[in-house]
Amino acid sequence: MMLDVLYFAWVREGVGKGQERVDPPAEVKTVADLIDWLGHKVLSDKTRLRAAIDQQFVPLDTPLAGAHEVAIFPPVTGG
Amino acid sequence: MIRVVVSKMPLDVAAETAALHGLGGGAVATFTGLVRGDDGVGELLLEHYPGATKAALEKLAAEAVARWELAGAIVIHRVGAMKPGEPIVFVAACAAHRAPALEACGFLIDRLKTDAPFWKRETRGEEATWLGERAGDHEAAERWR
């Protein structure tokens, strides 16, 4: 299951890139599983992270089933 | 009429407001957010999620138009680098009467803060800091649910 993973703000800076294409194993079922599997140090505290699947905000326990693009980022601060 | 813009270009508040004056509504309410110069902030950088940002704002604008029967709604958010005092966000609503125009305007800015993928980074001197979320923003957005 090829996935594009996007990073924003300090998450992007900590990972060191804005995007990567990954092929996680079958046991990676949710966004939280993906974050653990990616293994980037900046992703270690999941309480500070938010996510979107195919550009829709989702909780971290959401299944990845069928996802093409997963974004991982800090809480939004626009306006 | 719905107008949604995500742009690096400066924001012309007067021109945007004027666009709502010809729609036949009796009330136009607007909100302009400016870059604050708190504690010596020299620059504010706005990062966003290209592809997702405009869709999120269009969804909000469409929800406001349907809920308050607006004649028009505008949501404009700047991205990139800005200086203190510059307009960063503009929302506006045109309705038959003041109550729906004012309420829709409040809805648009409150929900934008929690529902749209933007991130702010302040630079003071040589030091850049990403802003954290504000608890009050979620309370403000919740009152429209």
UniProtKB/TrEMBL annotation, chain A:
Record's protein name: Molybdopterin converting factor subunit 1
Organism: Sphingomonas panacisoli
Coiled coil: none
Gene3D superfamilies: 3.10.20.30
Record Pfam families: ThiS
Gene name for this UniProt entry: moaD
InterPro entries: Beta-grasp_dom_sf, Mopterin_synth/thiamin_S_b, ThiS/MoaD-like
NCBIfam families in the cross-refs: moaD
Superkingdom in the source lineage: Bacteria
From TrEMBL, chain B:
Keywords: Molybdenum cofactor biosynthesis
GO terms (BP aspect): Mo-molybdopterin cofactor biosynthetic process
Xref: InterPro entries: MoaE_sf, Mopterin_biosynth_MoaE
GO MF annotation list: molybdopterin synthase activity
CDD domains: MoaE
Enzyme Commission (EC) number: 2.8.1.12
Top EC group: transferase
Reaction catalysis annotation: 2 [molybdopterin-synthase sulfur-carrier protein]-C-terminal-Gly-aminoethanethioate + cyclic pyranopterin phosphate + H2O = molybdopterin + 2 [molybdopterin-synthase sulfur-carrier protein]-C-terminal Gly-Gly + 2 H(+)
One family name in Pfam for this protein: MoaE
Gene3D superfamilies registered for this protein in UniProt: Molybdopterin biosynthesis MoaE subunit
Pathway(s) it belongs to: Cofactor biosynthesis; molybdopterin biosynthesis
Biological role stated in the UniProt entry: Converts molybdopterin precursor Z into molybdopterin. This requires the incorporation of two sulfur atoms into precursor Z to generate a dithiolene group. The sulfur is provided by MoaD.
Subunit structure of this chain's protein: Heterotetramer of 2 MoaD subunits and 2 MoaE subunits. Also stable as homodimer. The enzyme changes between these two forms during catalysis.
Family membership: Belongs to the MoaE family.
Protein's name according to its UniProt entry: Molybdopterin synthase catalytic subunit
UniProt source species: Sphingomonas panacisoli
